[in-house]
Fold this protein.
Amino acid sequence: MKALIRWALRIFSRPFLIRISYLFMGLFKPLLRGNSVECPVCGSTFRKFLPYGVNSRSNVLCPTCLSLERHRLIWLYLQNQSDFMTKPRRLLHVAPEQCFYNRFKHYSHIDYVTADLKSPIADFHFDLHEIPFKENSFDMILCNHVLEHVTDDRRVMSEFLRVLRPDGFAILQVPLEPDRESTFEDPSITNSRQREKYFGQKDHVRVYGRDYPRRLRECGFIVEERLVSDGFSAAMINRYRLAPDEILYIATKP
């Protein structure tokens, strides 16, 4: 299974994977019946989750809604530690994940706007270096595991800040190596194999280190860092299959 998913992620484009994902996942759900793990996003329980990733991680992908560790963490924050479920707001969701998309689009109190370069489920298609919305257009931005793909992440961060309304916030998760002090990027590395070697994936252009929140602050955000280990017991982390060392970054516009 690990090898099959790793092969699919390397061979097929993200838009194609989005189109076939639910059909593919439906084949495996009956094999995973059980109650050892639970997805808080869709409420499904299984004996275990599916593996996922180019460098495959075991027991992380929900076969029902396709949530991963970061999605379940964000959902728990939005549901239990914010007013997202009740307060009207305009939300820009970049690279919309299906586990969120299928829920957010039905919330009557959310003015839900989706964007991506190519995703078939996005409302708008544009380059994040030049977001085609006016200043102060959104109350919230959700953008996960995208900044490691863009040429100039600081410019994109500044664009996010520009289109956010004062006191609006963004959740901008990235793959981060906690043992790495500083973010590593080298624009001379353009070969797919070299990028996978140095950045983790062939379409990544940097690997983030512990300086990531400082980069957000330098662009003007106020950043709150929430450690998974501070907010959840070991039993909950295991039940929801969260990443124990992940930090949730809440970036607010002053």
Summary: The mean pLDDT is 90. The CA atoms of residues 163 and 238 lie 37 Å apart. The chain has two domains: 2-61, 70-231+243-252. The radius of gyration is 18 Å.
